[in-house]
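User: Please predict the structure of the protein below. I'd like the answer in structure-token form so I can feed it into my own downstream comparison script.

Assistant: Understood. Taking the following sequence of 457 residues as input:
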Amino acid sequence: METEEVRRLRRSKFLFFFLFLSSTLTNIFRSVGPPARLGWSRTAAEEAEAVAALTCSGHGRAFLDGVLVDGFPTCECNTCYAGSDCSELVADCDADADSGDPLFLEPYWQRHAASSAVLISGWHRMSYRTTDIFISAELEKHIRRLHKAVGNAIADDKFIVFGSGSTQLVNALVHALSPDNATLPAAVVATSPYYALYKLQTELFDARDYEWLGTTSKWSNSTTTATKDFIEFVTSPNNPDGMLLESVLGGSSVIHDHAYYWPHFTAIPAPADEDIMLFSGSKTSGHASSRFGWALIRDQKVYNKVREYMQMNTMGVSRDTQLRILKLMKVILAEKEGGEDIFKFGFRTLTERWRKLNDVISSSNRFSLQKISPQYCTYFKRIRDPSPAYAWLKCELEEDKDCSDVLKKGRIISRGGTVFEASSQYSRLSLIKTQDDFELLLQRMAALVSESGIASI
């Protein structure tokens, strides 16, 4: 329980930060001339600065929309940390390596707080419409610029549709690719191991024009592919194993999910140029909560159907989100030209994590990781080491039939292989969460390897 003395200390610290920053910002406004006349934005800036100044011992974060205690913001602690300032490490806590929360990029944005900040007026974009009905023309332009600068996709000859994360666009594209007035529904498939959302969404919406029919292995040698309409998901790099994949069925209706086709996750051997490509802001900049994704579509008829779906579904993506993503895109492009490149930052972070985990796993014959070879990357202009978002861990012993259960007994929360329609001897470990999450995962994994008593030959 938090004592009154602790609460009083926290209130006084917050008040000090607020008054100090208020005074500092006022002096800055006065020193730069005309901006001092701006009044409505000053209070918002002071509030944001004051909350950002709460360090939460480096193991958490305070937010403007967080829970208030006695009228003051509180720290939201990282996994396995507690206390009013997140300074208490929780004993015997499970390492949570389940979700793909891309918080490994949070330190980058903390270092670029000034250039990436967005302040929104109370009357910003109140209309349903924006410059292009539902799409910010300026954001569209910057997305095309980013793809060209990174070299991961050819976007100039394609239409762009925005979605609330690439998640919303998954079913929009399945709907758009399903044939009209067909006798039989289109078959939606993917190659195992695949991202479970493809199956879950297809079954959830339960439309008459399409149905989930499992993995491509069931159909790759079937004569049915010549007479039935297939919609194939190709995830490259693949989630969960990080492999660069291509279509198995070779049909015309293929959705290429390139959420992880960025230099911090994979080598970029060449720009992608498929008919339909999905990208996610969550994995580009790390801003999963903003819920922003986009699709590049070559065929105008497919584009029109997706656009109509989005109009009926949500009337487009939040204009506040579009403004924030635009700001982030500008920072990414500007920093790439001479500042701190986010892709280099992310690559360094994930390469180091991948190396450390490999060092631990290689000391035991009980576990193994997917093999990803170094590959030439056009972005870095050299052969680069692997930096996957996830470790696709295999339990090698015959008695370890459920790898996620083996990890759970070792105090590690993972995502079992059956979720991806793969063997239960596999489990996915996320490498893209906070540094606290990764370090605890490493500790728990080292302890599990040590306890197994099976040394590598």
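That's the full token string. The mean pLDDT is 90.
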